[in-house]
């Protein structure tokens, strides 16, 4: 009997040494200690032994049982610990991994330039005002001294909605709307979308302008020139100069087109400025008396106005060669500007 128990113990300990997961451990428990186990068989047979042998065998069986149970408990807690470690490491965060890339939005170059224009004019006391994009003929043309049949209507390829309703072709109608509402002095900056039926490398059917208007008693052409020089130097750099070329707009008299020192060659002459050293940036002039007549301003009032294309300024500032890129919404283009 002793031999049988020894062999059984050896066999079971050998088997237990091979168990490495909880499922196998459960089967081992059934096999080693369960009702049909050899150990149970031995225990049942103890009753038929003589008293001395009964005692000895009982002690051996109990020793075997408790020894085995302890081994099983140890293994079980080791397996539990392993399982816990495994789940902890599965849930843990590897702080050495590179972070997830979050794409930041960027301001559109038109917005950046418009903000800059606003910041340049704010210290001069200009208020920002806006007007409707669908405009009445009166504000877009008539009150700006462009009567029906006037050839100047052909200067801008107008989108008509009705006979007398258009998509505004410039921001100048905001001059009229503002002066009809307010008495002089008036000092405004009027940004917005404008529309012309045109499409090529330097024209899109929608683009942005910003209008400037300064009206008061005693405003002179030299005030206009000084204001524009201040603007050009702030926008394109301190060493920038301007020149005014005589031009024509129905709503200003005299009128001028303004050039700045070429942003590329700084005046030496290059392809961008067609070897002139100058780049055109805006139109301007002294407000025409007929315009003041339309808004009911008295005779002793004078003023100047100017209007520029925002995309054009942005193209010069950021050296963008194709106007259409502003509106294709390719983020690789749009996220480059600060
Ligand atoms: N409105 C003119 C244009 O779109 C620009 C301009 C504005 C000219 C104000 C003179 C004065 O071409």
* Poorly predicted tracts of residues: none
Gyration radius over CA: 45 Å
Strand content: 15-25%
Main-sheet strand order equals 1-5-6-10-9-8-7
Please estimate the helix content: 40-55%
Enumerate how many helices there are, as a single number. 11
Structural class: alpha+beta
Say how many strands there are.
10
| Assembly state (oligomeric) | single chain
What would you note in describing this structure?
With 338 residues, the protein is of the alpha+beta class. It has helices spanning 2-17, 22-33, 38-45, 51-91, 109-121, 137-140, 173-181, 221-236, 289-295, 310-318, 331-334; strands at 127-128, 134-136, 160-162, 165-167, 186-195, 206-217, 242-249, 252-261, 278-287, 301-309. The chain folds into two domains: 2-91; 109-337, BirA Bifunctional Protein, domain 2. It is built from eleven helices and ten strands. The chain is rod-shaped and about 140 Å long. The protein starts with a helix and ends with a helix. The structure holds phenylalanine (PHE).
